[in-house]
Write a structure and sequence with these properties.
It is built from 6 helices and 41 strands. The chain is mainly beta.
Length: 715
């Protein structure tokens, strides 16, 4: 059979056909038209403009904190399939459980920076064009809401961001900047591969001197894989299948010489199977944003944004029997939530040596969880209603002062006021409506003044020293305050309406070296202390089935935990980032983070002192080598090491370290058509993602092959 016959036959099976077509296109003789090679000096420049660090356009080389930018080129070169996959290659960025987004339960996808993780609530603010992506009720992030094709760049700010962005950014900010219209164009892609995976996306952009924007959509479907470690699998373990659709639109309009108006919206619908027949969840979410920027002078502007988030999350969970050969329903949840926010930011440069930013922001969130539980004789017997309202308000002022041609000072203050209201928990018997619990929690509020101080010194044209010292807070989410939950391994986790906000005090020093246009080296040492840290604290492990307060009934082998302000966490470490372009066609990039994070103070729980923070590895590393000349076959290999970490506060469930290798191939077939293929987890490594105290282990994806085609017209 000839290669052409094989291709034609494969087209009768669309998903396999996409992979074969992609591999055929990668054959060197298939190129019909080459593109210009990547210039040798395309290392990420320290002069690249960002907006996330200071909430004003500022170059990477002019901020006192460590900022990483992920560009469109890096998105193209990565074998990652989703935004979450891309971020796993960034030093210092951790996910609670780093599964692929397609199989991960939403509560596993919480993100944090510099070891400040361990719970389902992200200590990191995730933004898309300035709008929070964090769930307004739970705090976690659904990464599949953002199709990779619409992303222009991603900015990651570690620490020191609370003055600009408020209480949700205690550990830092991940800001996704989407593309503008500009000139018009169209792109579409289709790919398929292992686990019967199919992804299709399309984006149409438009624009002229006065208006621009895009409309983009994505559809994804995969059978997934079995997340239970192979030796532990039973009859109930099935692949974690997933499908979703996302639609996103953005428009910008120049209303006059000084006024620019913008609006955007997003709709997301997802269905997931979660490892067993009775476990599944669905999410339907949408948001809208409107805003305007008024140029008030040659060097000043006033920007306003308002947005709304609304979503419904439905989740079913089960209890699995011994040997994992049987299960029965344990809980059914319906959690609608919403958030409304706005911000107003005034910027003024050229005030002598000063560049001033003043702003205010507000976010109001509400959510209510309706849960049925205690399954007996074929039906649930209890219903629980929990929820409340939360308001976060802040005012900030910050200044960047040019002392001379080589040095700058930074200073900022922020005032935050938070309030929790209408908190409640109602429990009643489903059969007769008898009220068993009727709690109305006391409204609570508080204030906090945060600061940020920094210095930037260009010692030479090729070496820059930076340092910052900052403080901030994170207010607990509505989920942490009011909603208990049950997890795999018969874990019962109780909520805590009396939680206080976490407070951070941190500092970092760094050195940026750019000895040539093809070399960039960034070294950053950091220290952070989180007091009143919120974590899931183990109350008791159940040797036999019975009642353990405050959790209620806990099955034998299970665990009772409660969210609590455990005490103090300390995070210290060193981040190393190196990028080399030895020639126009070759790329070498590497990064490493050394970051031990531990509990240093735990009133009433001396057994926790010295323990590592759950989910936070001491070592993370990435190495990428690539040949990226589009006139020939592009090949990029990325190796990722994730060190050992613990799955709970007692450090009794150690998740083994792992090394994964991914390879991506790309071939430009014509000026408009390209083919690509990737292999993730080349060595088919069984990588532990979680490891419960009772020995239950979940693992990452096996070797995965994906191939596809992309067509582009216009810009």
């Amino acid at each position: 059979m000839t290669l052409r016959e094989a291709v034609l036959r494969s087209l009768r099976q669309p998903r396999r056909g996409l992979l074969v077509l992609a591999l055929w296109g990668l054959w060197p003789g298939a190129a019909l038209e080459a593109q210009d090679p990547v210039p040798a000096d395309s290392v990420i420049a320290l002069g690249e403009l960002i907006v996330s660090a200071l909430r004003a356009p500022t170059s990477v080389g002019e901020v006192p904190v460590n900022v990483t930018t992920v560009t469109r080129e890096e998105l193209r070169l990565s074998a990652a399939q989703t935004l979450q996959d891309v971020l796993q290659e960034v030093p210092g960025l951790n996910f609670r459980f780093p599964f692929q987004a397609g199989v991960a339960h939403p509560s596993w996808q919480a993100v944090t920076l510099r070891g400040l993780g361990g719970t389902a609530a992200s200590r990191t603010l995730v933004l898309v064009d300035g709008v929070p992506l964090n769930d307004p009720y739970f705090g976690w992030v659904r990464w599949s809401q953002v199709p990779v094709e619409v992303i222009e760049r991603i900015e990651i700010v570690r620490g020191g961001a609370t003055v600009s962005w408020g209480s949700q950014s205690l550990a830092g900010v991940v800001h996704v900047i989407t593309r503008s219209g500009g000139g018009g164009g169209f792109s579409a892609g289709m790919q398929g591969g292992s686990q019967s995976t199919f992804r299709g996306d399309a984006m149409a952009s438009f624009g002229d001197d006065r208006a621009g924007g895009y409309v983009a959509g994505e559809f994804f479907d995969s059978d997934g894989y079995i997340v239970t470690e192979p030796s532990l699998r039973g009859a109930v373990d099935i692949p974690s299948a997933s499908s979703h659709g996302a639609l996103r639109a953005k428009v910008e309009f120049q209303a006059g010489d000084r006024l620019r108006i913008h609006a955007q919206g997003n709709y997301f619908d997802q269905d997931k199977d979660n490892a067993t027949p009775l476990r599944n969840n669905t999410t339907e979410a949408g948001f809208g944003q409107v805003g305007a920027t008024l140029t008030t002078g040659e060097t000043s502007s006033l920007a306003f944004n308002a947005y709304m988030q609304s979503q419904t999350y439905v989740n079913s969970f089960s209890g699995v029997g011994a040997g994992r050969n049987s299960e029965q329903p344990s809980i059914s949840q319906d959690v609608p939530s919403s958030g409304v926010g706005a911000n107003l930011v005034w910027q003024k440069s050229g005030l002598g040596r000063h560049n001033l930013t003043i702003g205010t922001d507000i976010l109001s969130a509400t959510g209510e969880a309706s849960e049925q539980y205690l399954f007996s004789d074929g039906a649930f017997t209890r219903q629980r209603e929990t929820g409340g309202d939360q308001t976060l308000y802040g005012f900030f002022i910050q200044d960047r002062v040019h002392l001379n041609d080589r040095s700058q000072l930074y200073g900022g203050l922020r005032f935050d006021r938070w309030g929790n209201a209408s908190g409640m928990r109602h429990i009643f018997a489903i059969a007769d409506g008898n009220v068993l619990t009727d709690n109305e929690f006391e409204d609570r509020s508080g204030t906090k003044l945060s600061h940020n101080l920094g210095v930037l010194l260009a010692a030479t044209d090729r070496a820059t020293f930076r340092a910052s010292f900052y403080s901030g807070l994170r207010v607990p989410t509505l989920n942490e305050l009011y909603k208990p939950f049950r997890a795999a391994g018969n874990v019962v986790n109780e909520s805590n309406e009396a939680l206080d906000p976490e407070q951070v005090l941190g500092a970092e020093v760094g050195l940026d070296l750019q000895p040539g246009s093809s070399v960039l080296i960034r070294l950053t040492g950091f220290w952070a202390r989180v007091s009143d840290a919120i974590t899931d604290v183990t109350i008791q492990e159940a040797e036999t089935s019975g009642v353990i307060q405050p959790c209620g009934f806990v099955a034998a082998g299970g665990v009772c935990r409660r969210r609590d302000n455990v005490g103090t966490l300390r995070s210290v470490g060193l981040e190393t980032e190196i990028e080399l372009r030895p020639s126009a066609a070759w790329l070498l990039a590497m990064n490493h983070q050394y970051n031990p994070t531990e509990v240093t103070d735990a009133p009433g729980r001396p057994d926790l002192i010295g323990n590592e923070v759950q989910g936070s590895p001491t070592h993370r590393a990435m190495l990428r080598v690539g040949h990226i000349d589009p006139s020939t076959l592009e090949v990029v290999a990325t190796g990722r090491y994730l060190g050992a970490r613990f799955d709970n506060d007692l450090n009794t469930g150690e998740i083994a370290g792992s090394f994964l290798l991914d390879i991506r191939f790309r071939r430009q077939l014509t000026s408009r058509l390209s083919a690509f293929a990737s292999v993730q987890n080349v060595f088919d490594t069984i990588a532990e993602m979680s490891h419960d105290a009772n020995g239950f282990i979940r693992v990452g994806a096996p070797r995965t092959l994906v191939g596809g085609l992309r067509v582009r017209f216009g810009g």
